[in-house]
Amino acid sequence: MQQGDFKEAAAHFSKAIEENPLDSVPYINFANLLSSFQEKEKALRFYEKAIELDPKAATAYYGAGNVYYNDEKYDQAKIMFENALANKLEHGDLFFMLGMSLVHLEQPRLAIPYLQRAVELNELDVDARFQWGLCLANLELLDEAIKQLEKVTELDENYADAYYNLGVAFAYKDQGEKALNMLNKAIEVQPDHVLALHAKKMLTK
Known about the structure:
The protein contains 12 helices and no strands. It is mostly helical and about 200 residues long.
């Protein structure tokens, strides 16, 4: 599978299932393969079989959660990610995905601790930090939001959305010059950033 020979990988996974039909691991591996080919329903059946064989198979819950998330079924994704967490899967990507499921379910307050934990496990994860900053901003915790968004731009100086949201945050704090500076940086990085262009127009009326 890692070498890109998916047909051969599928044959090996099938053989492993035949030889060890009560082992959850080959089902999880086959499900991961199916998921990579967007065979969502088939992948879910294999994840479900793995969970049936081993109700504590955290990676099966995580894999199923990703399938549901990519299918925009965020309620079901959240449940699967919570089950993965309950079964001791301690991984930054899991915390990020659970946080993002809650973001999509418009529950930023609940998302914050998971996004924060994702950043604690990987301080270079700019996307997790950016989403954490957005959730803080949504709850009007602007000083804390600015701190995280500024850190994003330190880690990635081409993160246009971070500059844009910093611009908005500074505008809310009536710091027009800082706001304009951040919006200009967003436009410099991404000249067609519609939201930044619109916000700049509103600020310079």
